[in-house]
Amino acid sequence: MNEIPNPETCHSGVELQIERVIVASLEQATVNVRCLRGPVRRGARFNRLSGSAQALDLTLTQAVVYGHRVPALDTGLTAFVTLRGQGVQHLTSSTLASGSQVIQGTNLLP
Fold first, then answer.
1. What is the pLDDT of residues 44-80, one digit of tens each?
2. What CA–CA distances, in Å, run from 5 to 2, 14, 39, 66, 109?
3. How far is residue 110's CA from residue 76's CA, in Å, rounded to a whole number?
4. Which of 12, 48, 55, 105 makes a 20 to 30 Å CA pair with 86?
5. Measuring CA to CA, which residue among 107, 84, 74, 98 is closest to residue 18?
6. Where does the pLDDT of residue 24 fall: very low under 50, low under 70, confident under 90, or very high at 90 and above?
7. For residues 29 and 61, what is the distance between their CA atoms, to the nearest angstrom?
8. Which of 31, 41, 45 has the alpha carbon at shortest distance from 78?
């Protein structure tokens, strides 16, 4: 007999490409991003930073597309997002020399 998966333990992988860090404090950053793998929902948790061993524990608390708050970002969309938690100081704006950072994480399936 197959077990029915528990929705609370189901996760989907998500990725955001950091284009520009707009405002950053010790525990929060507003960042211009492109969604590489989504949908990325409000509440998504990010724990990996491309090319880095730095520890992250960031939660997406808000996403704004064309001036409107949205509950999720679909793949390909560009948005301003607010990230809260540990590791925001490791986020940097993309440059020609360094390229773009990508943060990876999960969100619970609906």
1. 999 999 988 888 999 999 999 999 999 999 999 999 9
2. 9, 20, 20, 36, 11
3. 20
4. 12
5. 98
6. confident
7. 10
8. 31
